[in-house]
Design a protein that fits this description.
The complex is a heterodimer. By secondary structure, chain A is an alpha/beta fold. In chain A, about 40% of the residues lie in helices and about 25% in strands. Classes of the chains: A alpha/beta, B mainly alpha.
Chain lengths: ~325, ~325
């Protein structure tokens, strides 16, 4: 995390009557950092984003966006923050360039500045040739890119992207992530929410896992991996050889061996045991077909976390029932 | 605590965008042709009547607006009927379309307040209607000059202008209502349906129902002229719930200098004449006096437009950006 903090939330809370949508969350985002908000639908991600932008009232807590309070100085905040909403919409009867012109006039750019910035932004997202086409004919991916062009044109220091990759094909997703990485290289901080865990993992510096309006976990992906999955390594092996499983179990540090298929084994260990495992297979004159260590994946962390939460909850319920 | 910056930053931009959307949109083109053709047709047949009947009328030009051809409504009744329709047509999806196109949160994340968006939308719609009404007004005056062969006098022009202004306020009331519905109802179809329902209720049903609604408050026995005037006042008070009745009353007085009271037409229909001390029946009033007669009605209509806008404004401010 870089030294300068651009977004700082402390005890941020949003309630709708009795229902608590966001429950005392605190986090910081540094300059040039890509920060991911993850979690199931209804976990409070979009509400958090709207509070950062001053588009919904904050029930309690403090937020500072580049030193401004979104509730009191919404214009200062909205001048430096670009927002790409969940399924962004444009005026279908206007062309891509005209849509951006409207936004640029709202921001208050003069005509010359407008022309230049819009041309540059459309060029950077690869929509220069479609500038004079009506947005009504655009695919979802093109609309998302147009949304990013709007943020580029605005010259935002912070880009807030709500579910930017949802509903995009793999090609469009890679293009989009490429643009997001370019933001980072220019010192623009990015806050993005997503379900596409694998993709998020590839761009995010740090992530916050939302659950029931709270941040359940926060940190870099390897940090979360250690927290949720434990410190162990998982090594997969595919090899021939009778009694291989027993021999592998004797390698120092291996805590367990399980059979995952014909000729496939999985080792659980407290360190990377790939060299020893390979040596064992070779020593037995077996044929090694595959050997790999599993990296802590966000998908695994996410799934494991919510599984364990569900187990805890059902455990609590059982306990209550017994008590009753 | 005060908000930072002006609530109207971006107002001009939004207004111009709305105006250009309305002016180029198919919906507005259709409505313009409908209103212009219908109104001109009515005025044309009215002119045929005027030519046959009135030889000596000091306010011949104003008859263009009020005289109807046989079996046809007059120009002002066409306006009273169609202006709400145009206002509803423009306004029923002003805000809900931003939601359905999912542009609302993107636009509100720009450095403007919601005030500017809503006010700009109202203003853009109103300017569209003003352009249409002014064009129509000029067409009618032009048609009058060509066919009647005489120019309007300054008094007549002033009265016709006053009528134009009142028509714009009347449009403002209905636009305010349509805007309110576009905020309250997420579905444009619902908003249009409710607005049109209210329009039908006020233009068709309410004039028929108002006397029955007023019945409990009217004394059965009419013995003195005072009783009769009270009775008429109560009936009028109920009728005025409909903006169309208010508009009719105002325009009736403004376009006919001989009308001294809004109760005069009702009395005339009973075969009675209102005599005021020191006045000569049938003598024309100056414009200022005519305006004073209907000033309360004019103020009521302006207040109605402002009230509807404010209700919409407060509702919009309290709504969540997200659906």
């Amino acid at each position: 995390m870089s030294e300068e903090t651009v977004i700082e939330a402390a005890g941020l809370t949003k309630t709708y009557g009795e229902a608590v949508a966001v429950d005392h969350i605190s986090f910081k985002v540094g300059r040039g950092e890509i920060f991911g908000l993850l979690g199931p639908n209804g976990a409070g991600k979009t509400t958090t984003i709207l509070m950062l932008l001053g588009l919904t009232e904050i029930s309690s807590g403090e937020v500072r966006v580049l030193g401004h309070n979104p509730a009191r100085e919404p214009l200062s905040v909205k001048r430096v923050v670009g927002y790409l909403p969940d399924t962004v919409g444009f005026y279908d009867h206007l062309t891509a360039a005209d849509n951006l012109h409207y936004t640029a006039r709202l921001i208050g750019f003069t005509k010359d500045v407008r022309e230049k910035k819009i041309a540059e932004a459309l060029d950077r997202v690869g929509l220069a040739e479609q500038a004079e086409k009506r947005v009504g004919t655009f695919s979802r991916g093109m609309r998302q890119r147009l949304g990013l062009a709007e943020i580029l044109m605005k010259g935002a220091q912070i880009a807030i992207l709500d579910e930017p990759t949802t509903g995009l094909d793999p090609h469009a997703t890679s293009e989009l992530l490429g643009i997001i990485r370019a933001f980072k290289s220019e010192g623009v901080s990015v806050l993005l929410s997503s379900h596409m865990l694998e993709r998020v993992q590839s761009v995010c510096d740090r992530v916050a896992l939302f659950s029931g309006g709270k941040i359940a976990l926060m940190g870099t992906v390897p940090e979360l991996g250690r927290q949720v999955l434990g410190g162990g390594y998982v090594v997969d092996i595919e090899a021939d050889g009778a009694g291989l499983a027993d021999r592998l179990a004797l390698i120092p540090g291996v805590s367990g061996v399980e059979r995952t298929g014909i000729g496939k084994l999985r080792l659980h260990s407290d360190r990377d045991v790939r060299p020893e495992a390979a040596a064992e297979v070779v020593a037995m004159q077996g044929r090694l077909k595959y050997l790999g260590v599993q990296e802590a994946s966000l998908e695994a962390i996410y799934t494991r976390y919510f599984e364990s939460m569900a187990q805890e909850r059902s455990g609590v319920k059982d306990g209550e029932r017994h008590a009753a | 605590m005060r908000r930072e910056g002006s609530a109207f930053a971006g107002l001009g931009v939004v207004t111009l965008k709305e105006l250009s959307d309305h002016m180029t949109g198919m919906r507005m083109i259709v409505m313009e042709w409908l209103v212009v053709l219908l109104a001109l047709g009515v005025v044309y047949t009215g002119i045929q009547q005027i030519r046959q009947v009135s030889a000596e009328d000091p306010f011949l030009f104003l008859r263009l607006f009020t005289r109807a051809g046989e079996g046809l409504p007059s120009f002002v009744s066409v306006l009273s009927f169609l202006v709400p329709l145009v206002a509803i047509g423009i306004g029923f999806d002003l805000v809900s379309s931003e939601r359905s196109q999912r542009t609302l949160s993107r636009i509100l994340s720009q450095p403007i307040y919601r005030d500017a968006l809503l006010f700009g939308k109202y203003l853009g719609g109103l300017i569209t209607i003003i352009i249409m009404l002014v064009a129509l007004w000029l067409l009618v005056i032009g048609l009058g000059i060509l066919t009647l062969g005489l120019p309007p006098g300054p008094e007549e022009v002033a009265r016709a202008l006053a009528m134009l202004v009142v028509t714009i306020v009347y449009a403002g009331v209905w636009l305010g209502l349509a805007l309110l519905f576009s905020i309250v109802f997420r579905s444009p179809a619902t908003a249009a349906f409710v607005a049109l329902g209210l329009w039908l209720f006020f233009t068709v049903l309410w004039p028929l129902l108002a006397p029955y609604a007023a019945a409990p408050f009217v004394s059965e026995t009419v013995q003195t002229p005072g009783d009769l005037l009270t009775q008429i006042s109560v009936l009028q008070a109920f009728a005025r719930v409909s903006p169309g009745s208010l508009f009719g009353e105002i325009v009736g007085v403004l376009l006919d200098p001989t009308v001294r009271s809004t109760q005069q037409p009702l009395l005339a229909s009973l075969g009675l004449v209102l005599l005021q001390p020191g006045s000569i029946p049938g003598a024309p009033l100056p414009l200022v006096q005519s305006l004073l007669v209907v000033w309360p009605q004019i103020v009521a209509m302006i207040a109605g437009a402002i009230l509807l806008f404010v209700i919409g404004y407060v509702t919009f401010q309290r709504q969540e950006v997200r659906a």
